[in-house]
Amino acid sequence: MPIKRVVLAKPRGFCAGVDRAIDVVNMALQLYGSPVYVRKEIVHNKYVIRALAAKGAVFIDELDEVPDGAVAIFSAHGVSPAVRAMASAKNLKVIDATCPLVTKVHMEALRYAHENRSIILVGHAGHDEVIGTMGEVPGQIQLVGSIEQAEKVQVPDPGRVAVNTQTTLGVDDANVIIEVLRRRFPNLITPTSDDICYATQNRQTAVKLLAEDADLVLVLGSDNSSNSRRLREVAEGAGAKAFLIDDATEIEPAWLEGVECVAITAGASAPEYLVQQVVAYFRSLGVEKVEEVMAIDEKVTFLLPPELSREMSASGLTQLS
Fold first, then answer.
1. Within a domain: residue 175?
2. Is residue 229 part of a domain?
3. pTM above 0.85, yes or no
């Protein structure tokens, strides 16, 4: 049975925070030349990392790998105060590419701590964003990653509990965990606006819409990208067969057996050219009908970090995108 059509989710791919973070690295290279040092992966996509490394960005795990006085960039996932203290001690020229929506979660955690509340962070252990958020209020925040953990977590005062969430979680999964916490702690305080970022939610909404009709959903994204993994899970939850792939070379012909409609989306850190490579793959198989399905019209942008914006203005350079 030949594939009859390919549908593309919209929105898909880069979000405003990822666009901003990649711009930060490119502009830092323009301003200061190579090398500039980036703590962790600026975003979780190996193709983006390779492209920036080829231009002179040096990706490191910790700041002790950076020479004193050098230019250092914090990734979009945010850092703890301990990392900022080390940067200051090494006299680094810091550019903070933390996504503003992650910064919002940090600020909420600090506010809850100042209110003497126990904080529960819903998220995935070991994720860079989670490490940074937990570092803001060590000793006052606990990580919960499942319904089972939500049922067991203990706090000193059940009447003074607040919750934050990692920005890249599955919306439905996070809500189920929060409902358990709300049942256990009836006075639970939640953020005034959703912690899960607009782009994560929008991409999940779009892929859920497409998965209702598609036989197969392909998600472009790296395996260490939390929001990309959630897209695959959301597609499967909607009843479609779904796979997470880095690029078109990872498509298995066996996946296409009995498939009439293929849906394609991309995680928030996956470049659009990877999507177009997959489209070209299906066109090479004879698929003529390729259409885009808009779920939500996304028009969010973020300003550059002020420390970089000042330097760009002084140098007469302009933002890249």
1. yes
2. yes
3. yes
